[in-house]
Amino acid sequence: MENVLLSVSDLSIHRGKEEAVRSSSFSVYEGSITALVGESGSGKSMTALAIAGLLPSGFTASGSIIFDGRELLSCDVDMSSIRGRGITLMLQDAAEALNPVYRIGQQIRTVLKINGLECTDDSVRKLLSDAGIAEAFNEYPHELSGGMRQRALAAFALAPAPRLLIADEITSSLDDENAHMIMRLIMGMAEERKSSVLMITHDLSLASQYASRIAVMHGGQTVEEGDASAVVDFPKHPYTELLLRSSEFARDCSGKLFSIPGRMPLPREEVSGCSFASRCPYSEDGCFKEISLKSSGNHIWRCIRG
Ligand code: SF4
Predict the structure, then answer these.
(1) Domains recognised in the chain with CATH numbers
(2) Summary mean pLDDT of the chain
(3) Of 3, 23, 4, 21, which Cα lies nearest the Cα of 13?
(4) Between these two residues, 258 and 202, which has the higher pLDDT value?
(5) Of all atoms in ligand 1, which is nearest to the CA of residue 304?
(6) DSSP per position, 226-263
(7) Measured in angstroms, how far is the CA atom of residue 68 from the centroid of ligand 1?
(8) How confident is the model at residue 12 (pLDDT cuts 50, 70, 90)?
(9) Ligand 1, atom 6: closest residue by C-alpha
């Protein structure tokens, strides 16, 4: 049995009466790649920020986030000591994450130094070479192409050899070929550094190609979690079924993608019962009451069906 590196249980994230995440739970196993999947507004990115201890001002988290045996929501945990060697967060906007006034090599050296790692020219060049951008050592961020900046971000995020890399929608602005290129790069670099990965994406087909486990979020709540093959081949939750129909897997011969009808509940809207009820083709009276979890082995879902 694999060890659990990260266990998120009953996580809720509030700002006043707004509820961005509602009682969400999933796990990341040591050495594995887990995908957190859902449409925009499902609560994936707020979950990532809560794990990294970087929630925007005004938001508070309750429930439990246990990382490497430590409760991160406990007030005596100093998250600055966990970010870096423990957890790093790679965001989609490379231009925002890189400092425009320092050369790439210099910025990588600083990351290595802050984390107490060897920060010689050779170690910086090795990291850039692993990311396929050895030539970027003396360049400023604005001198790099979009693809090279994305590779530089991967080098930054994996420089400390973190126990957990959270990669938040890092392929959303890339075409299909570049998305797979950056995913393969990250998987290779993470494996070499023995880092586990939590990939956050709206694209279930991409998730199924790289992750061994998938957790699906809707309306701020995880609605299904299981081995990637079980979730994709035998989805239990109607939202997962429709996400599959709307993914690249299901592009029809005219090239059109199916679009899921309706919309996600907003954080300020009160949800009673299933958050998917207003969009679900199988909705019935019982769906508007509290929905308990069902499971089969390590496959878990939140629906009255199945
Ligand atoms: S609980 Fe009801 S509304 Fe929700 S996904 Fe299941 S069948 Fe659909």
Answers:
(1) 33-53+78-86+160-301 (3.40.50.300)
(2) 93
(3) 21
(4) 202
(5) 1
(6) EEHHHHHHS--SHHHHHHHHTSGGG--TTSPPP--SS-
(7) 34
(8) very high
(9) 303
Q: Which residue ranges have their beta carbon within 6 Å of ligand 1?
A: 237-238, 274, 276-277, 280, 282-283, 287, 291, 303-305
Q: What is the DSSP track for 126-184?
A: HHHHHTT-GGGTT--GGGS-HHHHHHHHHHHHHTT--SEEEEESTTTTS-HHHHHHHHH
pTM for the whole thing? 0.93
State how far the Cα of 45 lies from the Cα of 222, in Å rounded to an integer.
13
Atom of ligand 1 nearest to the CA of 286: 2
Q: Which residues contact 32 (CB under 8 A, 6 or more apart)?
A: 2, 196, 197, 212, 213
Q: Which tokens belong to 267? A: 């954080």
pLDDT band at 174 (very low <50, low <70, confident <90, very high): confident
Q: How far is the CA of 263 from the centre of ligand 1 (A)?
A: 15
For 244-302, how does the pLDDT look when each residue is reduced to its tens digit (9 = 90+)? 998 866 665 666 778 899 999 998 998 889 999 999 999 999 999 999 999 999 999 99
Of residues 48 and 272, which shows the higher confidence score?
48
Q: What is the pLDDT of residues 220-230, one digit of tens each?
A: 999 999 999 99
Distance 6 CA to ligand 1 centre (A): 28
CA distance 265 to 269: 6
Distance of CA 275 from the midpoint of ligand 1 (Å):
8
